[in-house]
Amino acid sequence: MDWLHAIFKRSPEIALFLSIALGWFAGRLQWGTFRVGTATGTFLAALVVSQAGVHVDPGVHTVLLALFLYAAGFEAGPQFLPVMRGEGARAAGVGAAFAVTAFLLASPARAGGDGAQALVTVLGLLAALLVCGHAVPWLIRRPLLDDALQADAALSQGVPVLAPGLQSAAPELVGRLYRVAAGPSRTVSDVSGQEAHDPDLPPVSISRIKRGLRFVEPAPQVRLLPADVVLVVGRREAVVARARGLGEEVHGIDGMALAMQRRDVVLTRASFDQRSIGEIRATSSGNLRHGVVVVQLSRMGRVLPLAADTVVRLHDTVSLHGTEADVARFAAVIGDPVLPTARTDVMYLAGGLVAGLLLGLPSVHAGSAVLTLGAGGALVSGVAFGWFRAKRQTFGAVPPGALRVLKDLGTAALVAVVVLGAGEPAVAAARELGAPLLAAVAAMAFVPLVVALCAGRYLLGGRHGALLAGALSGAALSAPALGDTLDRTDSAVPVAPFAVAAAVSGLLHAWF
């Protein structure tokens, strides 16, 4: 063990990354429906590694915590206020229940000195991971992911939200080939419905016409002739309705493959503000809509139904589908295109972190208590910068993959740093403390969370497991538990209850 201690003393970062690697391996272990999880696996790995004697600079924890909280807040920014308005008061109750119970149980554990405090730190982290990641789904009898999907769908006004990796067996946007049958002569505009002004049935796009061996430009006024092969693109229900009677559906026609572009556009033209989709369809020209299908409308990260009575607002994001030229023409009329990028706007990211760290510096004295945001400033800044990015998407890009790395690595590293620092004295204290004091320390770690769990079960009900797990992690002031919850839900919904419960719990802790 001396040689290992010498290595970790010379390069403690080896112990950090070794704990993360072993923890991710252990986190994949699963028995039936029980999955260890990466955070719990990292906890166990770091506890073992810590026995070799590891000292990690406290500054590492500060940097990791700021990065993690900023990333979590940034992702949650667009939906933070709606979730907080709906569940904020209940999350506050969870935080209060935890803080009061922890205060009542704190005195016996404090009598054990530094070793007992290290043991409280380690057991408190373990309790938060077990309760949020395992006890909550067991209590509600379903995975946290299912609850998160329901909450996301509620925020999207009932628009279906699918789990990652899943897609609908009947996609809304389709492209079909038809061979025009003999019958009344119709133009491209007649079939596509670009001039029909039907508020209940969206138009489709005639994207390509093959006449014999040559291709014809699908201009609105072009008349379709018998035996023409046309490519009809649009929302499924519109294609089925508008292509009815056009002719038989065919496939495998040479030359009818067409590269299409999907591009998000931020609505910035005031002429479209506060108007319904039906009104815009009825008053805009067919030439403008020709060749373009609106496939999605979203506001602050929430998908809105493409119904005729849905009202459009400035800075909504409109997803267009069509050829590159048609999409560019349509986008120039309604707003500013969002250029796809895999690069992070580091200036925006770093500026947000600076703002968050500055927010955490001021303190207010309330009697003997000192109130400060501390690392929570990074969370507040992340929410604000994420909200603004969702509203103005032409700058400040932080791709989902970058946020995922910050959250996943941040969660595992935070767990490892805490356990590596407190693991060795905690194990020593557990061996030395008498049974009564050891029981008091264990009670201080687990009982407040159990009380808060019961309070949350009553306040939030059994339909909000993801929100309950977020509130419990906030009540315990445990960023790693929040990270584990975000990993299990693959959603930013738990961040708002975490923030509210953490604020209430931290405030009461300071006063007590």
TrEMBL record:
Top-rank lineage group of the source organism: Bacteria
Chief localisation class: membrane
Compartments, record wording: Cell membrane
Pfam families: Asp-Al_Ex
Keywords: Cell membrane, Membrane, Transmembrane, Transmembrane helix, Transport
GO molecular function: monoatomic cation transmembrane transporter activity
InterPro entries per the UniProt record, alphabetical: AAE_transporter, RCK_C, RCK_C_sf, YidE_YbjL
PANTHER family attached to this UniProt entry: K(+)_H(+) ANTIPORTER SUBUNIT KHTT, PTHR30445:SF9
Protein name: Uncharacterized protein
The organism of origin for this protein: Piscinibacter gummiphilus
